[in-house]
Design brief:
single chain; about 350 residues; alpha+beta; 10 strands
């Protein structure tokens, strides 16, 4: 509780500083044409001298991008894909969204028209997300990771989120289902809605607010050590520093229930927020966990600055209501079975 309160106060303080006249920057977005070269853009500075990355961002345009290299680009590297090929692939991805949208949420009711979705007609910046290894594929998992995944599946007895069950208790649902957390880097991943982020800065700190599940990360800058190994958190323990104009964030001390793609508590996540244009920050994440993958690997996407899409309230109660309803139904089915002859 004290840790949560401290984090809330720090975020509030950074937000207040970012909104103060002293922190306001004229010409924070210099006129420039974004290119692939990071040298083409130099961000302005905060009053205390750090690169100014503050603003509202979203990654809706990355929605639909395959995580790994798809078969259609077999044998190619990201830099080999031409703009025309990327445009064609993006059009095909958007068409697939239009086709499946009416059926999302169930064949009978559907989820409604495609324009209900924020990722409608997204404009992908790349052909796939994994940048290292060069083949665009996530490295193989270790035997330990596979055994861990099998044990988790057995414990859930087949239930994985809103699936078939049986559901014995809240632990049979993911933390995302329960509206608790998407973890890191899960909170950065695009979805059909809720893709806005806000970066705010203060002397010695950077904070990131996430629209979906409405979490916040407070990232101290400098050389202070991570917390002790006995402390684990859903969003991990982050430490940041500047590498030129790039914000580098190293996060450790993850709680396994919130792990990304089956990572263990030993995961070290290194993120890089690199400004590449007046409205674009390239965000990359390197996952290093020898208990899960045979080698470190990296994926990346663009964050687009858009002050017209600030963080909106995310009142996530659906998962809580659904969990209560599903568990109640499961108990009812068990009671019915118990009343059957021969039981």
């Amino acid at each position: 509780m004290k840790t949560q309160l401290f984090a809330t106060l720090v975020v509030a303080g950074i937000l207040a500083l970012a909104a103060s006249p002293a922190a306001a920057q004229t010409g924070a977005l210099r006129s420039s044409t974004p290119t692939r070269s990071a040298k083409a853009w130099t961000p302005t500075r905060t009053p205390w001298g750090d690169p100014d990355l503050q603003g509202s961002y979203n990654n809706t345009d990355e929605s639909g991008t395959p995580f790994e290299r798809p078969a259609e680009f077999e044998g190619k590297r990201l830099d080999d894909v031409t703009p025309a090929e990327l445009a064609k692939a993006t059009d095909q991805r958007n068409e697939r969204k239009r086709q499946v949208a009416p059926g999302l949420g169930g064949a009978e009711t559907g989820a409604g028209p495609i324009h209900w979705f924020e990722d409608y007609n997204s404009k992908n910046s790349r052909a796939w997300l994994v940048t290292d290894p060069a083949d665009g594929k996530v490295p193989p998992q270790t035997d330990e990771a596979r055994q861990r995944a099998n044990a988790a599946a057995i414990k859930r007895r087949g239930g994985n989120g809103f699936n078939v069950g049986p559901f014995d208790g809240p632990e049979d649902f993911t933390l995302y289902d329960r509206c608790i957390t998407r973890g890191v880097p899960g909170s950065m991943m695009p979805a059909i809605y809720g893709n806005s982020y806000q970066i705010v800065q203060g002397p010695g700190y950077v904070a990131i607010r996430y629209e979906m599940v409405h979490e916040s990360r407070v990232i101290p800058l400098g050389t202070r050590p991570h917390v002790g190994a006995g402390i684990e958190m859903y969003m991990g323990d982050a430490r940041g520093h500047w590498d030129g104009d790039t914000l580098v964030v190293e996060t450790t001390n993850f709680a396994e229930p919130a792990s990304y793609r089956g990572a263990s508590r030993h995961l070290k996540l290194t993120e890089r927020f690199k400004p590449v244009g007046p409205k674009t920050v390239e965000w990359s994440a390197t996952l290093d966990d020898p208990h899960t993958w045979t080698r470190p690997w990296t994926f990346a996407m663009n964050l687009t600055r858009d002050e017209a899409q600030p963080v909106f309230e995310y009142a996530c109660h659906e998962g809580n209501y659904a969990m209560s309803a599903i568990l109640s139904a499961e108990r009812t089915e068990e009671a019915k079975a118990a009343r059957q002859p021969g039981k």
